[in-house]
Amino acid sequence: MLTGVNIGDFGHTTRENFLDLLKELDKVKGVERYRISSIEPNLLSDEIIDFVAGSDRFAPHFHMPLQSGSDAVLKLMKRRYDTALFRHKVEKIKEILPHAFIGVDVIVGVRGETDDYFSESETFIRSIDFSQLHVFTYSERPGTAALNIDYTVDPKTKHARSKALLDLSDGRVQNFYLSQQGNRKKVLFEHTKRGKKMHGFTENYVKLYADYDSSLVNRMIEVEVGAYDEEEMAMKAVF
Asked: Under CATH, which number does the domain 7-179 receive?
């Protein structure tokens, strides 16, 4: 997993860039799979998306912070992108990687997020082809510029907004999982044993489960994506 603060800015001070890093990592022998962690949409270039689409090692899995689907709120947050750019990135990914998993960060209840702005944000979020939302609730931090914004959101409203987006996310995750049923994918099973089951993720981040078998742990195995199990919140791995 490639992680860091603003990883898309890699090489900014050394005359390198993030795409150069990906290309070099793709040459390293002995590493079967890479995932790119959260990267801002303005730093996720179309060239990076094209590169991932042509790579056998970089997972078709993208995680981008949106934070709000309202351009007015994005301006209050001083974000370096808008909803039009975000939509373009999602559509670009899905155009060349239709089975890619797209995770999206959202913050609810920030100062300045009126009812109308939240409604605008929710409408935008519903309109894009994401796979999962990571929903965060805004909390005050002393000394931040946000404290200069007059409009505040009460805790009850924050909770309601968070629940609405989490419910939307749950439905999208399950729909994405079901869309992969019957496909053959490579799963990497983790060592953790939960009851008599083990779990792992496919390259496009579908969670699979199977009966625990220590010989399969930490190995990349091709399986068929089976049926969804509500108790496991995962798809069954069919060997």
From this structure: 3.30.750.200
pLDDT in tens, 131-164: 999 999 999 999 999 999 999 999 999 999 999 9
The answer to whether the CB of 6 falls within 8 A of the CB of 43 is yes
Let me know: does 200 contact 181? Beta carbons within 8 Å: no
Instruction: pLDDT band for 63, please (50, 70, 90 cuts).
Output: very high
Nearest residue to 213 via CA among 228, 233, 193: 193
**Sheet of 61-67, strands arranged across:** 61-67, 101-108, 132-137
Confidence class for position 12, pLDDT limits 50, 70, 90 = confident
What is Dmax (Cα atoms) for the chain? 58
User: Strands 207-211 and 101-108, how do they pair?
Assistant: unpaired
Q: Is the pTM of this model over 0.90?
A: yes
pLDDT digits (tens, 9 = 90+) for 160-201: 999 999 999 999 999 999 999 999 999 999 999 999 999 999
Q: What is the DSSP string of the chain?
A: -B--TTGGGTTTTTT--HHHHHHHHTT-TT---B-B----TTTS-HHHHHHHHH-SSB-SEEEEEEE-S-HHHHHHTT-S--HHHHHHHHHHHHHH-TT-EEEEEEEES-TT--HHHHHHHHHHHHHS--SEEEEEE----TT-GGGG------HHHHHHHHHHHHHHHHHHHHHHHHHTTT-EEEEEEEEEEETTEEEEEETT--EEEEE--GGGTT-EEEEEEEEEETTTTEEEEE-
